[in-house]
Design brief:
Elements: E1 9-18, E2 28-36, E3 40-44, H1 51-58, E4 66-71, E5 74-75, H2 81-91, E6 92-95, H3 107-117, H4 119-124, H5 129-139, H6 145-148, H7 157-169, E7 175-179, H8 187-204, E8 207-211, E9 223-226, H9 227-230
Parallel strand pairs: 3-8, 3-9, 6-7, 7-8
Antiparallel strand pairs: 1-2, 1-4, 4-5
The structure holds adenosine-5'-triphosphate (ATP).
Adenosine-5'-triphosphate (ATP) binds near residues 20 and 47.
């Protein structure tokens, strides 16, 4: 079992600048931002303030023009093409607004996806990744075998969200990036989903960067960060 050093840093953003188009005014200009191992941070800020762009930069989905982003000690800006994709699936779990599930595959197959593409995630998912996937789904409130084996597209929005969360969590990635994953849920479902997500992150030891402009959700996080305080763009 891997020992979690709670004092260690899982994410370091250093003198970052990002503009969507070369030569345009940057939408991100962040001097410094960090997350410790296992830390759960709520990142808030008004619409258009760059929250999703920051997550895309951290995930290596967009290439920053200046500065560095280190995830688990690796400068993601230095990774190219396939190496960047491999690094992402090894170290980062993503939960986006639209979930990005493979619609015709079952809930279980979707959860197991990172283990198919990443040896690290597979090894960290225990002797039988399928059992880990079923445990995660169960913990997140999806235990009915009929639902677990149903194609993702036949599930409700709330159920799909739980599948997306289990997929992000399997194989204990260092960092979970969640971008407004509760936006399609009603108030009660939002709170319970968030509680489950925080609890699961704590139990597997993944750090969580949770983005939302819904301030009613910020309780219970280790830290609340307003992007307008760190983004000088
Ligand atoms: N794919 C894109 N191409 C060009 N500009 C973009 C793109 N995505 C976002 N932007 C611009 O970048 C800025 C920051 O947008 P971003 O989506 O990061 O904000 P946000 O804080 O996540 O907003 P919201 O809370 O509404 O999701 C906005 O001015 C937006 O128009």
């Amino acid at each position: 079992m891997e020992v979690i050093d709670s004092g260690a840093t899982v994410l370091t953003v250093n003198k970052l600048e990002y503009a969507w188009k070369k030569g345009e005014v940057p939408v991100l200009r962040i001097d410094a931002l960090g997350l410790s191992t296992g830390e759960r941070v709520f990142l808030r800020g008004p619409s258009g303030s760059g929250k999703s762009t920051l997550l895309a930069a951290i995930a290596g989905v967009v290439d920053v023009q200046r500065g560095g982003i280190e995830v688990a000690g690796t400068d993601v800006g230095q990774l190219k093409g396939g190496a960047k994709d491999r690094f992402r699936v090894d170290h980062v779990g993503l939960i986006f607004q639209m979930f990005n599930l493979i619609p015709w595959q079952s809930a279980l197959e979707n959860v197991l996806m990172p283990c198919r593409f990443s040896r690290r995630r597979r090894e960290r998912a225990g002797a039988d990744p399928k059992l880990s996937a079923l445990r995660l789904l169960d913990d997140l409130g999806l235990s009915d075998p009929a639902l677990v084996s149903a194609p993702a597209m036949s599930l409700s929005v709330g159920q799909q969200q739980r599948v997306a969360a289990a997929r992000a969590l399997i194989g204990t990635p260092d960092l979970i990036l969640a971008d407004e994953p509760t936006s399609a849920l009603d108030e009660d479902a939002k709170i319970s989903f968030l509680e489950l997500l925080k609890r699961e992150c704590a139990s597997v030891g993944s750090a969580l960067l949770f983005v939302s402009h819904d301030r009613s959700l910020e309780r219970g996080f280790d830290r609340v960060l307003d992007i307008t305080e760190v983004n000088k763009a």
